[in-house]
Specification:
By secondary structure, the protein is an alpha/beta fold. The protein is built from 19 helices and five strands. Helix 5 runs antiparallel to helix 11. The longest helix has 17 residues. The radius of gyration is 22 Å and the shape is globular. One of its GO terms (molecular function) is phosphatidylinositol bisphosphate binding.
């Protein structure tokens, strides 16, 4: 609903109500922008977001959802829909497709999305597999740090790591600042063996990349990989067929050259493990942030979900997500590459 129409809405006076008639319940508070003036300008320049048209754009997307996907179980709140508009630079059609993909991905992978809450992932969180660094990069991007070597396959399946990553993304994207600035991923492959790499095959690669590229309203501005062993050539061979050129060009491989990393991520925002001056890597603080959000995640992910219908299944492929047949082809093409890297 536009700001103009909101300003024209008036409440009925008490005199207009009969003695037995109760006034209508108050509507929940509407969207209030939390962006700084600097970020409002950035959103205008990079995302085509015009504050004077913002609520009109949200209403347009809401109307499209109601018309084209009337049975889609989704929030239609202003703040929620804005995530999708920003992620697709206020292109209504692409924002709608992203919203549909968002729900389709969640319904098509119950192993990851069932009972998705922080308390169910204490083993992953306790392992130090991932955290969010306390400082943002010079562009204002939060830095998601992932350390695959911290995962012990005998303790829990790899999909638990994916669940923890998804919860982290959900928490990050609640911030309007993150919606505008995006995030950076820092992955440390030190100590990743062939046996661990074999758990990340084309099927999982297709699912994860499909979510990040086409099924989640977040802007990934860069992926920095450090300490990658020779085996990473095989891992990247699995990943690359599913990457769009835009995202593939945002991968930066630094090896053990931390000076190369520091040209992108300054030392003052990095922990000492990566040649930084911001103290030791802290995982406990982010774990506490997630665990404190338990109730929100229970409400979002632990309720009965309607079965995914054929419309959502078809919509999932319209934005470029690969099919299982394509995944099988990729498996045959790269299966031997993990071993040839040794």
């Amino acid at each position: 609903m536009s700001e103009e129409s909101d300003s024209l809405r008036t409440s009925p006076s008490a005199a207009s109500l009969s003695e037995n008639e109760l006034p209508p319940p108050a509507e929940p508070p509407g969207y209030v922008c939390s962006l700084t003036e600097e970020l409002v300008l950035k959103a205008r320049e990079e995302l085509q977001e015009k504050p004077e048209w913002r609520l009109r754009d949200v209403q347009a997307l809401r109307d499209m959802v109601r018309k084209e996907y009337p049975n889609l179980s989704t929030s239609l709140d202003d703040a929620f829909l804005l995530r999708f508009l920003r992620a697709r630079k206020f292109d209504y059609d692409r924002a709608l497709q992203l919203l549909v993909n968002y729900h389709s991905c969640r319904r098509s992978w119950p192993e990851v999305f069932s009972n998705l809450r922080p308390s169910a992932l204490k083993d992953v969180l306790g392992s130090g597999f991932l955290t969010v660094l306390p400082c943002t990069d010079p562009r204002g991007c939060h830095i998601l740090c992932i350390r695959p070597d911290r995962w012990i396959p005998s303790n829990y399946p790899f999909t638990e790591n994916i669940r923890a990553i998804y919860l982290t993304l959900e928490k990050l994207i609640q911030s309007e600042e993150t919606q505008v600035n995006g995030i950076v991923i820092l992955t440390d492959y030190k100590g990743v063996s062939l046996s661990k790499a074999s758990h990340f095959g084309p099927f999982i690669a297709k699912k994860v990349i499909g979510i990040l590229q086409d099924g989640f309203p977040i802007r990934i501005k860069a992926v920095h990989v450090v300490n990658e062993p020779r085996i990473f050539k095989g891992i990247f061979a699995i990943i690359k067929p599913f990457l769009k050129e835009k995202i593939a060009n945002r991968f930066f491989l630094h090896g053990s050259d931390l000076n190369s990393l520091h040209t992108n991520l300054p030392r003052n925002i990095l922990p000492k493990e990566y040649g930084g001056t911001a103290g030791e890597l802290d995982t406990a603080t982010w774990n506490a942030v997630l665990l404190a959000s338990e109730d929100d995640f229970v409400k979002e992910f632990c309720q009965p979900v309607p079965a995914c219908d054929s419309i959502l299944g078809q919509a999932l492929l319209q934005e470029g997500l690969t099919s299982d047949a394509q995944c099988d082809d990729s498996m045959r093409a790269v299966k031997s590459q993990l071993y040839s890297c040794y």
